[in-house]
Amino acid sequence: MPQDPIDAHMDIPGTTLFDGKMAMKGYALNKMCYAFNGADARAEYLQDPEAYFDKFGLNDEQKQACRNKNVLEMIAAGGNVYYLAKFAGIYKLNMQDIGAQQTGMTVDEFKEKLRSAGD
Amino acid sequence: MATIIGGITTSHIPAIGNAIAREQQNNPYWKDFFDGYRPVRDWLDKHKPDVAVVIYNDHGLGFFLDQMPTFAIGAAHEYRNEDEGWGIPTLPPFKGDAELSWHIIEGMVRDEFDITSCQELAVDHGFTVPMQLLWPELGLSMPPAIPISANTVQHPIPTMKRCLDFGKALGRAIRSYPKDIKVVVLGTGGLSHQLDGERAGHINPEFDKMCMEKIISDPEALTKISRHELIRQAGSQGSEFIMWMMMRGALGNVKALHQNYHIPISNTAAGTMIMESIDS
Questions:
Q1: With 80 as the cut, is the pLDDT of residue B87 above it?
Q2: What value of ipTM does the predicted structure carry?
């Protein structure tokens, strides 16, 4: 019996569905970000990010995406936005900052895009 | 026997918690959103529910991808809140009602919803922000709460139909509780928003308004929306609407007492509603 297409990667423009394939790909990266729930983990990371990447076994793509603090690259490397939000928090980036970065807008332009959705 | 007095829908994004912490309820950006809660608080003050069942999705505090329950029910005497990675102030623990939790768990499994029970569960903004919005003083006026978490973090997420059916079973379980208590059910999250990808910032007022209308008048019609279609229309995190379906299923027939739709708060379209049960 054919499966519901939710199990496959679906084509919604500008959208990566975090499914089993991505969950396997991004496990190490997401596990590191989940650790950032703890203040001690954040402090340990900031002391030596490269050592912290290795502690969780990040691959080169994931490490480089983190070094670049590039959310689209982190998503492509299997990152899930809920865990990435904890990584972003270390650098005091909020959801508007992240939205602007991903859409190539300034933060003010991104905020205006959101506001104008209600017009 | 227990009765369900009704349901309340509310956004639960962290930015609301930050605005509360900074006492920004009356600043121009936030005022229309927060004003939408006055009728909700008046209604709660009038009916004084004994327990709040809070349907939310964990966002990576209580659960990680190592073990990801599709539906999880809190069964603890209290639920602690933790720093979610942002260095924000944490709130005091929330009182639970473990006896009712286990009654619900028994009822759900008897109804063939094989849920995960949690005797410890750290609750994140998805749970705490609605509690802060509805009972701003927290403390004494706030009833004990039972958190129920649905997976919206990792696909496959449950279908709209499954979520409505979950709510129906939840309603049966609550109403079969022998104590004479009043229960309010919170459906949190939504409405349309997307945080990730080049489509970040996606908001869809037409779809949201249709959902707000149909969830009152014809929730069964919403079960025809596939998960793919829900995300295409409402955005990646718009999938949180499944928690509204879970709440709605528990309510039976309802009349809408209050609706407020507001764009935007942070990246999100917010829908605040009171649905009063008329047959429980």
A1: no
A2: 0.94
CA dihedral A19, A24, A26, A32 (to 10 degrees): 120
Cite the active site residues of B.
125, 193
Cα separation, B231 vs B225, whole angstroms: 10
Distance in angstroms (rounded) separating the CA atoms of residues B250 and B101: 15
User: What's the domain count of chain A?
Assistant: 1
Q: Is residue A10 assigned to a domain?
A: no
Domain B3-277 has CATH 3.40.50.300: no
Of the candidates B211, B259, B260, the one whose C-alpha atom is nearest the C-alpha of residue B235 is B211
- In this structure, what token pair is assigned to residue B239? 């999938």
What is the predicted pLDDT for the residue at A4? 56
**B197 to A18: CB separation less than 8 angstroms, yes or no:** no
pLDDT at position B141: 84
Distance from CA of A104 to the nearest CA of B (A): 8
Q: Which residue segment(s) compose the domain that A91 sits in?
A: 18-116
Residue A88 has pLDDT above 80, yes or no: yes
Name the residue type at position A93: L
CB B151 within 8 A of CB B201: no
B189: left (phi over 0), alpha (psi -120 to 50) or beta: left
Q: How far apart are alpha carbons B235 and B258 in whole angstroms?
A: 25
DSSP count for chain A of H helices, then E strands = 9, 0
Which of the residue ranges A28-32, A90-94, A114-118 has the most confident prediction, judged by mean pLDDT?
Answer: A28-32
The pLDDT confidence band at residue A3, using thresholds 50, 70 and 90, is low
Nearest to A117 among B231, B232, B264 (CB): B264
